Amino acid sequence: MGGIALFGAAGAIGRSIAAALRTDGRPYRVVGRSRPALEREFGTDPLAEIVTWTPDDPESVRAAARGMDTIVHLVGVPYHQFRQHPVVMRQVLDGATAEGVGRLLLIGTVYPYGRPRTLPVREDHPREPHTVKGRMRKAQEDLVLEADAAGRIRGAVLRLPDFYGPGVERSFLHDLFQAAASGRRAKLIGPIDRPHEFAFVPDIGPVVTALAAREQAWGRIWHLAGAGTITQREAAAMAFAAAGRTPRLMVAGRTMLRLAGLFDPLMRELVEMHYLQTDPVVLDDGTLQALIGPIRKTPYAEGIRRCVEAAAGESGAQST
């Protein structure tokens, strides 16, 4: 496999993929809008080539893609600007195909499914998004798969559940780990007794690199599931136990989210996706494992302990 570029590399999953490439000794390109952010994450890695871009500038997109064989698309947009997902996806596809990039792997979400009809959810489950965010993510996937069908580029989608990991701020569980480490009350979004699944971020990178290396990967959708299911209450018990404390929880339901949304734009956006708390999507990744082999999945007890330890380390560093 030739050169690989991580578009939107500075996020948690981008860092996980970079770590997997580093372990394999493979050079890679990291692409993002902010050079300081990229330098902070990858500046000490001699295998990393840092490139900044502006998605609205076609020449900038082409320059970011130039000379690459594979792009992994991880580009994020603000949660209240999800309509930008298909816009940016089209910009990347146009630039990549103009530069002759051979493959593009989109790291996706469960949003395009809408409410699950069956559990676990396989790749052939109907995509019936009833939310704006789900429709935008579906449109993003469609662009990749249509480009593949048209022969413009080999494209595929890897869908992930919610994720968590040490220092991963964009996780529903992040506040839990910080609260357990500091002894304060944890803020959770209820209901907290529904079985949910989470992928441990350090486990994701090796899966992405293994999938991208398979010729059979392209032209379809894949799932990566978590390490089984867990309720938020169970996760809280593990987190506080890891810190040697008794759980202290503050749970916000849909009504509280609506009220908070009057003052907090992020809370307002979370109301639309609250169905994932009441009707969680649990993925089946048997097809992926049949292709790349058994997948290392960190048990929740170990992953949660590592997250609490990281949060305690951050808290200690800030207090010195």
Tell me what the structure shows.
There is one protein chain. The protein is α/β, with parallel strands linked by helices and 320 residues long. The chain folds into 2 domains: 4-162 and 197-223, Rossmann fold; 166-196 and 229-280 and 299-319, Alpha-Beta Complex (UDP-galactose 4-epimerase, domain 1). 44% of the residues lie in helices and 15% in strands. It has 13 helices and 11 strands. The protein has helices at 12-23, 35-42, 58-65, 84-98, 132-149, 174-182, 201-212, 232-242, 254-261, 265-272, 275-278, 286-292, 300-319; strands at 4-7, 28-32, 48-52, 70-73, 103-108, 154-159, 162-164, 186-189, 198-200, 221-223, 249-252. The strands form 3 sheets. The chain has a 7-stranded parallel sheet with strand order 3-2-1-4-5-6-10, sandwiched between helices. Strands 7-9 form a two-stranded parallel sheet. Strand 1 (4-7), helix 1 (12-23) and strand 2 form a beta-alpha-beta unit. Helix 6 (174-182) runs parallel beside helix 8 (232-242). It is globular, with a radius of gyration of 19 Å. The mean pLDDT is 94.
Describe how the helices and strands are arranged.
Elements: E1 4-7, H1 12-23, E2 28-32, H2 35-42, E3 48-52, H3 58-65, E4 70-73, H4 84-98, E5 103-108, H5 132-149, E6 154-159, E7 162-164, H6 174-182, E8 186-189, E9 198-200, H7 201-212, E10 221-223, H8 232-242, E11 249-252, H9 254-261, H10 265-272, H11 275-278, H12 286-292, H13 300-319
Parallel strand pairs: 1-2, 1-4, 2-3, 4-5, 5-6, 6-10, 7-9, 8-11
Task: Provide a count of the helices.
Answer: 13
Q: What's the story with the biggest beta sheet?
A: 7 strands, parallel
Mean pLDDT: 94
CATH architecture of the largest domain: 3-Layer(aba) Sandwich
Task: Classify the helix fraction into a percent range.
Answer: 40-55%
CATH class label of the largest domain = Alpha Beta
For the record, the count of structural domains works out to: 2
Strand order of the largest sheet: 3-2-1-4-5-6-10
Per DSSP E runs of 2 or more residues, the count of β-strands stands at: 11
Uncertain stretches:
none
Q: Tell me the CATH superfamily of the largest domain.
A: NAD(P)-binding Rossmann-like Domain
If you consult CATH, what is the topology of the largest domain? Rossmann fold
Which structural class do the helices and strands define?
A: alpha/beta
Q: Secondary-structure element sequence? A: EHEHEHEHEHEEHEEHEHEHHHHH
Strand residue percentage: 5-15%
Give the overall silhouette. Answer: globular
Radius of gyration over C-alpha positions, nearest whole angstrom: 19 Å
- Please give the alpha-carbon distance between the first and last residues: 46 Å
